[in-house]
Write a structure and sequence with these properties.
heterodimer, A: 290 residues, two-stranded antiparallel sheet, 11 helices, globular, B: 342 residues, two-stranded antiparallel ribbon
């Protein structure tokens, strides 16, 4: 029973950051029809930005976190402006390959700059974990969970409650009509990509201090993000949130009760199962794509 | 010209080892050749059906592992007290099994993911490669996990008239790779020129139209995926018996990316494109090695991919063809004449 609770708590903490990754990816896909292969690299960039700010520049942990998120936002806007804007109207494969190229440049850049040795970001919280009903959770993980939850709620509020969000939803439904109604679609694309990127960077900046920061950390994160998005249905934000927590549960219980070596395989097994049972995802709004 | 160029290239490649004695360069040429076969197989999918397999290295790696395990033998316990013991077979049998099993995996992945279009095939293939890598890493009894399979025997072939031949030296392996690459090229050329090839291109250009004239989309795409995976498995088998040590790193995503870059840069959907791209990007590390660190090389790789997509979106081979034949500069891709098949 203690074991069960412990796994549940771990899954909740992990699920929050997974949901952030998934929401970012699904937003970019849903609105821009771009399969963002820089997502993993942006996650890595977020973690390294956190490392530079907190360790390199000696900033306070709670100041470094927003700095890392803003770094992701700026980098996302830059990628959209320089690489995706000129390719407007190109087919999905071309943009996908350009994103792969950009992802390679970012990841190799991180490897070149920081070397392959993993870096640690020190936690500002007391080391002694909190005990709840026999399960123990570190304060850092509790903070990560709360921060992820705050960001998820903010993303929802932004999309459902603001003028920008309404323009984004309109662009998602029909970008031609949105443009006719006076929405600056180009600007919406940049904003979407920057927002999605900042969420990926936030996930990296939050998980970096929990684990370690290394150049290839984004590879697995990217594939997991794809798994989450397929699970939730491409383009569905609620789906990505639920998908993130579902993947974390599957991994945590898979690792705990089946085999820890296959922990990272759970996401892919989920993808395969979903495609067999309900290929459009469990919570899809849009019907099948392509 | 389109017929002479591959032939001229083949003659140059066949004569190259006569003047080239540097073992480092010869080694680079052999691995380049092996990855070029992989790139050609990827081109069958990406170039002719428009489906991007981003887990293509999985089929290559499965071919390598199947071939290595077939020739080395293994002894593995299964659930319910079952035990499978296998004595080593000749490497040629490993090669055939590698082709068969990789092809079978391609069939299953194709059946699974071609139920829906769009990004799904891409994501399923990536996932498949990751699962296979994790199995290779964790099923230690079979694969030795990170300790790698070592002492894989050299490829041996019983050639008519020549007796048993063991491919030990670099020169021998070079010609073996060249022979398999040439066969793969001819097979793809034959396939693409057939009725099946027209069906593939029809699906890529205009799926509803292709469907309306009776092309079975799922079947066509699945067959293409099967042939492509089988060919990648053949390349993997050659790799295993040449390098003679295989570890789970063979499944790394960066190898798939290398093949994708070869195809896209060379010219997807052209026969010679992957060969040109394969030679350029296979030998680029040799040229860059004295100048920069491996990490920087990858930055150059990524940047080159972006630049090529911006400058020559259709790749080097079509761009060259357009230069050579200014009158018949290929404009927008011509749709296949929609003609009800007889």
């Amino acid at each position: 029973m203690d074991q069960l609770l412990q796994h549940l708590v771990n899954a909740l903490v992990l699920g929050g950051t997974y949901a952030l990754l998934g929401i970012g990816l699904t937003l970019i896909f849903g609105i821009m029809n771009v399969v963002n292969f820089t997502h993993g690299a942006l996650y890595t960039v977020g973690a390294y930005a956190m490392y530079i700010a907190a360790v390199g520049l000696g900033m306070n942990f709670f100041v470094a976190l927003p700095v890392a998120v803003v770094a992701g936002l700026a980098l996302g806007a830059l990628i959209e402006f320089t690489l995706l804007r000129p390719l407007r109207g190109a087919d999905i494969d071309t943009t996908m390959l350009v994103m792969i190229g950009a992802g390679i440049v970012l990841q190799s850049g991180a490897l070149w700059t920081f070397g392959g040795v993993a870096k640690a970001v020190p936690s500002p919280f007391p080391d002694a974990p909190l005990q709840i009903l026999g399960a123990s959770v570190s304060w850092l993980r509790i903070f990560v969970f709360l921060a992820a939850l705050t960001l998820i709620v903010s993303a929802y509020a932004l999309i459902n409650g603001t003028r920008l969000g309404r323009a984004m939803r309109a662009t998602f439904q029909d970008h031609d009509t949105a443009a006719l109604m006076g929405v600056n679609v180009s600007l919406i694309y940049t904003a979407t990509f920057a927002l999605g990127s900042s969420l990926a960077a936030a996930a990296g900046a939050l998980l970096g201090p929990v684990y370690v920061v290394f150049p290839q950390m984004g590879d697995l994160a990217a594939v997991k993000a794809f798994a989450i998005v397929i699970l939730g249905g491409l383009g569905s934000i609620t789906g990505a949130t639920i998908g993130g927590f579902a993947l974390a549960l599957a991994e945590e219980f898979g690792a705990g009760y089946v085999s820890s070596g296959y922990r990272d395989a759970m996401g892919f097994l989920i993808i395969i199962a979903v495609l067999l049972v309900k290929p459009t995802g469990l919570f899809a709004r849009a019907e099948r794509i392509g | 010209m389109t017929r002479l160029l591959p032939l001229a290239l083949l003659v140059v490649l066949a004569l190259l080892p006569l003047g080239l004695k540097d073992p480092y360069l010869l080694n680079a040429l052999i691995t380049t050749g092996i990855f070029t076969i992989g790139a050609m197989s990827l081109n069958l999918l990406l170039g002719y059906t428009g489906q991007l397999s981003l887990g293509h290295i999985a089929f290559f790696g499965i071919g390598a592992y199947v071939s290595a395990l077939t020739s080395l033998g293994f002894d593995v316990g299964l659930p319910f007290g079952l035990r499978v013991t296998h004595e080593g077979w000749p490497p040629a049998a490993g090669f055939l099994l590698a082709v068969l099993i990789s092809g079978l995996c391609g069939y299953v992945v194709g059946r699974l993911s071609f139920r829906v279009r769009g990004a799904y095939f891409v994501i399923v293939t990536i996932s498949f490669a990751e699962v296979v890598r994790l199995v290779a890493l964790n099923w230690i009894e079979l694969t030795q996990g990170p300790l790698a399979l070592t002492s894989i025997p050299f490829m041996t072939l019983g050639l008519p008239g020549l007796g048993e031949m063991t491919f030990k030296t670099k020169i021998q392996n070079y010609y073996l790779v060249l022979a398999v690459a040439t066969l793969s090229y001819l097979l793809i050329a034959r396939l693409v020129g057939s009725r099946f090839g027209r069906a593939m291109r029809g699906l890529k250009e205009n799926e509803p139209l292709a469907l309306s004239v009776g092309v079975d989309a799922t079947r066509t795409l699945t067959i293409a995926a099967t042939v492509s995976a089988a060919m990648a498995g053949a390349a993997g088998s050659l790799y295993a018996h040449y390098i003679r040590i295989i570890d789970p790193d063979v499944f790394l995503f960066s190898y798939t990316v290398t093949m994708v870059i070869m195809v896209v840069a060379g010219g997807k959907g052209t026969l010679i494109g992957p060969v040109i791209g394969g030679l350029i990007f296979g030998l680029l590390p040799v040229a860059l090695r004295p100048v920069m660190a491996p990490e920087a090389q990858w930055i150059v790789y990524g940047a080159t991919l972006i630049v090529i997509l911006f400058v020559m979106p259709r790749g080097i081979a079509p761009a060259l063809a357009a230069l050579g034949l200014p009158k018949r500069a290929p404009a927008a891709p011509k749709p296949e004449p929609a003609r009800a098949s007889s």
